[in-house]
Amino acid sequence: MCRVAAYYRVSTDSQRRSGLGLDAQRQSVRSLCNSRGWEIVAEFTEVESGKRNDRPQLQAALDHARLTGAKLVVAKLDRLSRNAAFTLQLRNSGVDFTCADNPDVNRLTIGLLAVINEDERERISERTKAALAAAKARGQKLGNPNGAAALRRAGKGNEAAVKGMIARADAFAESLRDTVVALQSSGISTLTAMAAALNDNHIKTARAGVWHTSSVRNLLGRLGL
């Protein structure tokens, strides 16, 4: 029986606490292992951006796989790294690894997929920056520089009132309309990509937090986009 070291990664501590993302990754990896008759003997969870390569839990997973002969399994290729060179180093590390969403890739195709994924992320980033710069040049106000605190200070009456909360949420969403439209015009069409773009551009949520697919969905719903 193939022994598996499972590796899961989320980008923020709030995702780890809520279980958002982790549950889906675990389900994906376990589904693959069950279908192949593989046994998960160790699990490693990292809270770190995929842009960074100094990840102790990933190193621990690699060390475990190398010492025990286990296969390293992740839910998706981007859970390992967003950096193609880093993924190629993993491919050449001597550790057998695969991805639950594409378990039949070989050592050649996983390298090609890593390069293609990185190129697409760079293109999206370039289009996003260009779209935001163009919108700013047209005089559009992007983001909400004062954050949720300014909206609360500007509010009147009882903030616990439902109508007041809805009004503030709508006002916050409206302050981001030009930003969202600019991002959409750059080719960003999924909730995940929109959340990543907002976070990469240091635009906070109404509660001064990071964006997730659920918060982006709510934002688009309020804007009717």
Automatic annotation (TrEMBL):
GO function term, MF aspect, one: DNA strand exchange activity
InterPro entries per the UniProt record, alphabetical: Resolv_N (IPR006119), Resolvase-like_N_sf (IPR036162), SSR_resolvase (IPR050639)
Domain Resolvase/invertase-type recombinase catalytic: 3-139
PROSITE patterns: RECOMBINASES_3
Recorded superkingdom: Bacteria
SMART domains, A to Z: Resolvase (SM00857)
Keywords per UniProt: DNA recombination, DNA-binding
Pfam families for the chain: Resolvase (PF00239)
PANTHER family cross-referenced by the UniProt entry: DNA-INVERTASE FROM LAMBDOID PROPHAGE, SERINE RECOMBINASE PINE-RELATED
Protein name per its UniProtKB record: Recombinase family protein
Protein source organism: Novosphingobium olei
